Amino acid sequence: MPKDEAVEDGARPVGISLDVRLALEEAIGYGGISSFEFAGGREPVRKAQQAIEVRRAEGALPWMDLPRLDPSPYLEFASQWRGQLDNLLVLGIGGSALGTSALGTALLHPYYNALPASAREGRPRLFVLDNVDPDQTSALFGMLNWERTMVNVVSKSGSTAETAAAYLMARGVLQEKLGLQRSGGDVLHRHLIFTTDPETGVLREIGRDEDITMFDVPPGVGGRFSVLCAVGLLPAALCGMDISSLLSGAQAMDERIRNEAGADNPAGAYALIQFLEYMNHGRHISVMMPYSARLRDLSDWYRQLWAESLGKAVDRSGRQLHIGPTPIKALGATDQHSQIQLYAEGPDDKIVCFLRVGCFDREAEIPRLHAEKDSLAYLGGADLGSLLNAEQKATAWALARRGRPSVRIDVPRVDAYHVGELIFMLEYATALAGELFNIDAFNQPGVELGKKATYALMGRRGYEDLAREIEG
Amino acid sequence: MPKDEAVEDGARPVGISLDVRLALEEAIGYGGISSFEFAGGREPVRKAQQAIEVRRAEGALPWMDLPRLDPSPYLEFASQWRGQLDNLLVLGIGGSALGTSALGTALLHPYYNALPASAREGRPRLFVLDNVDPDQTSALFGMLNWERTMVNVVSKSGSTAETAAAYLMARGVLQEKLGLQRSGGDVLHRHLIFTTDPETGVLREIGRDEDITMFDVPPGVGGRFSVLCAVGLLPAALCGMDISSLLSGAQAMDERIRNEAGADNPAGAYALIQFLEYMNHGRHISVMMPYSARLRDLSDWYRQLWAESLGKAVDRSGRQLHIGPTPIKALGATDQHSQIQLYAEGPDDKIVCFLRVGCFDREAEIPRLHAEKDSLAYLGGADLGSLLNAEQKATAWALARRGRPSVRIDVPRVDAYHVGELIFMLEYATALAGELFNIDAFNQPGVELGKKATYALMGRRGYEDLAREIEG
Q1: Which residues of B touch A398 (CB under 8 A)?
Q2: Which pick of A449, A461, B232, B302 has the fewest CB atoms within 10 Å?
Q3: Could you give the 3-state DSSP secondary structure of residue B251?
């Protein structure tokens, strides 16, 4: 059951919506998507959706089932631990980290980790360590009270080099500071959890040997589509986020997409616009620009989703094409003072997606001061949120005046329900775009070579020949 | 005098260096920059540098004088305030914020704001508020102990809407909480500083009327070139960063650029590679990818520098061209698990610049645990920094194998001296690239329309017609 504020009297909350008007020729003139063009895309999108639903029915796309996951194991685990932890340290990279960061930034207090413990109501601070920087890692490890720290190692394979290194480092500190023993019993249980493949991989092996608490990444769910399983839900629950509403929102979006065919639902319309901009208009850069500081890390999550899913060398019949839009993160209003000069005057190679919040959680009226100064007085009495939204509207309008397209996703509130909707909409849109581009949206063959090269340079057994090739 | 660790026995530290080999045809094959091509660019770069030096001599480029600024006023101010502040709240946006954030992330403890007060040695936490998000602003304002907070309002014009709104909000809180009076005396002095134009603008007027402490943005220094004046130096000094070394590094880089003509110095070579990639090879996306978490916000600073300077509608004779590379921020090794699939297999439209750190500040040896597990054992005994640098090398090599170009800036250490070098190198490279593209790198006409539209939507006097046009 959704427990969010957005749900009143048991009614389903108003959902997010997509406005594509400022991408159309009607609004921005030559260079916009024509009505014929958009209409011509309806049938391909309908077919794409059909193809995805067939694959879902075959069980080939298990990430699509995640909205119906039972959240209770995570909620129970979180309630057991409430009041006992100061810190939750998540060790993961890519899809094992970006979703958790996105949820934390969107749904926790904007300065959550800086709050006094009392304001966190028995929940731990959240640290997502998704790099192997020695300065950052040592600094963080030196700062934590390990007696009250839980380490959640998140890796489907268990052997991702960065996560493995961070795990070894953290385990080393736990052993040193708390006398954690191999096959360790209580101390181990209090400080380590693994989120990994239910059957295979080195973390699963260690977890079995040492009786460590483990949660599953369901088989067939790739990293970048995993935020709505244990990967994201467990840290979210531990930090007190409303994961039931998160899943309800995702589920509502899923139903809506299935009830409204193709380009009539927001995922279909989004995928179609992005596809047409890329193929027909040469706009190879896709900017995600939330006008909400709390949604900024959702852009980073999306950046992986979009780039890794759609950036591909070959189509599904193996033909070379080297295709894929480049996603960019921008933040309104901040990046108006950094990127808008380029977006407005530079090459016409971008499609901007704005995220606009309907109702902010906090009111912030600008006080009426310096009434005698024209350049300040007009702000007095306005709410900060209305200024932020005016900036979004002004920017979209100014881009449109120059023939530069944008779409807008309206997010009624930044809460768990609507973030769930947004996540599932963008995931579904990614799958649809994969169909339209005729590529495999669910693999990532291009990262293998670099991974192997890292193994080789680090002296891993079996990679000696490659090491010689690189060093030579 | 430089006071950094990098400076030993009074000798000048080893400087940063640029390695362009993996952008060249010799290394990556067809699609790389040929030796003829690079050689052909030498004369244009030499001329570009000459033109810049002529303009500098005429006094037209005052940002170039900043490395020789006297840091003592900032150091003195900081030493007066030492031990008296818990928080420094910087209110600014774009060039008034990005440089300060970049310095803080690079030169302070990686979790500086989360440190206990004692570990900060009498220096304040640093909050750079560069947005008008009501949730973020209210949350931050509600959390600060205002009795021990100093607000530094940074705006050259004084009337930037976002900064003006944040200033009014902060002033409102100060008045409410601390009884700050207009023409206020001591309380005012203890909590407000303005960094603004030395002569004009609304902040200067208010500061004069109310006798508020003010620091100057030197005339003719644009926001994105202002980090080495009061804009960045004042907050840096208050938080204990070594601004003398920062300026020394910038100065050393300036001398080096002037002593080594054109493409022989790193700024010239960098600008030339970027220009050739854009014009001759269709690589319109410029990725800045530090392999150091501490340098991540320097990418955001660079993103503004590069985008706003080079993204232009017209050349210097007024001819329409709509030109400019799109800068992208990526972070190694994190974004290997997010963006590298696209960079390796997607369109060949990117030039990647890696930043690689020679010597990290902290050692972090990976412990030898799970020696029986092949997929973990190879990491034991290695330093985390060597893993990070192996990842960089592996990624560059894997991209090169696919014919994708990269350059690498080697940063001996992440300290004030080398960050100063890096900043000035990239600023000078921007000016050179502007010459090569034949555009004005120092204006930003494309942001005006959006600014006016915001005024109109917020009901500012004089913008009524525009408001009707937008709403109509």
Answers
A1: 449-450, 453
A2: A461
A3: helix
Please say if B281 is a catalytic residue: no
| Residue of B429, B439, B449 whose CA lies nearest to B18 | B429
Nearest alpha-carbon partner for A159 in A150, A149, A168, A172: A168
Distance separating alpha carbons of residues A126 and A101, to the nearest angstrom = 9
B111:A304 CB<8 A: no
Instruction: Collect all residues with Cβ–Cβ distance below 8 Å to B278 and sequence separation of at least 6.
Output: B284, B286, B323, B325, B437
Residue B320 and residue A390: Cα distance in Å, rounded? Answer: 30
**CB-based burial label for B334 (10 Å; 0-12, 13-18, 19+):** buried
Residues in chain A: 472
Tens-binned pLDDT, residue by residue, of chain B (472 aa): 334 444 445 567 889 999 999 999 999 999 999 999 999 999 999 999 999 999 999 999 999 999 999 999 999 999 999 999 999 999 999 999 999 999 999 999 999 999 989 999 999 999 999 999 999 999 999 999 999 999 999 999 999 999 999 999 999 999 888 876 554 556 777 899 999 999 999 999 999 999 999 999 999 999 999 999 999 999 999 999 999 999 999 999 999 999 998 899 999 999 999 999 999 999 999 999 999 999 999 999 999 999 999 999 999 999 999 999 999 999 999 999 999 999 999 999 999 999 999 999 999 999 999 999 999 999 999 999 999 999 999 999 999 999 999 999 999 999 999 999 999 999 999 999 999 999 999 999 999 899 999 999 999 999 999 999 998 7
Residue type, B396: A
The residues facing A285 across adjacent strands are A326, A350
| Dist. CA B98–CA B117, nearest whole Å | 25
Out of A135, A303, A373, whose CB is closest to B110?
Answer: A135
Q: DSSP of B91-137, one letter per residue?
A: E--GGGTHHHHHHHHHHS-TTGGGS-GGGGTTPPEEEEE-S--HHHH
Contact: B450, A336; criterion CB under 8 Å: yes
Whose structure tokens read 């000048």? B12
Strand, helix or coil at A331? coil
Residue contact A455–B322, C-beta within 8 A: no
How far apart (Å, rounded) are the C-alpha atoms in residues A377 and A383?
13
* Residues β-bridged to residue B181: none
Out of A326, A347, A376, the one facing B342 most closely (by C-beta) is A326
Catalytic machinery residues of A = 308, 337, 451
Q: Which domains does chain A have, with CATH numbers?
A: 17-54+245-441 (3.40.50.10490), 69-241 (3.40.50.10490), 448-472 (no CATH)
Cβ neighbours of residue A121 closer than 8 Å, sequence gap 6 or more: A240
Find chain A residues with C-beta within 8 A of B188's C-beta: none
pLDDT in tens, B343-392: 999 999 999 999 999 999 999 999 999 999 999 999 999 999 999 999 99
Contacts of residue A293 in chain B, CB cutoff 8 Å? Answer: 131, 133, 135-136
pLDDT digits (tens, 9 = 90+) for A274-286: 999 999 999 999 9
Q: How far apart are CA A112 and CA A117, in angstroms?
A: 10
> Kind of pairing, strands A312-314 and A320-323?
antiparallel
Q: Residue for token digits 């090879």?
A: B281
Distance of CA B55 to the CA centre of its chain: 23
Cα–Cα–Cα angle for B282, B286, B290, rounded to 5 degrees: 150
Calculate ∠ Cα A31-A37-A41, nearest 5°: 135
Using alpha carbons, select from A172, A185, A211, A217 the residue that is nearest to residue B370. Answer: A172
Instruction: Give the pLDDT score at A190.
Output: 83
Cβ distance B110 to A376 less than 8 Å, yes or no, reads: no
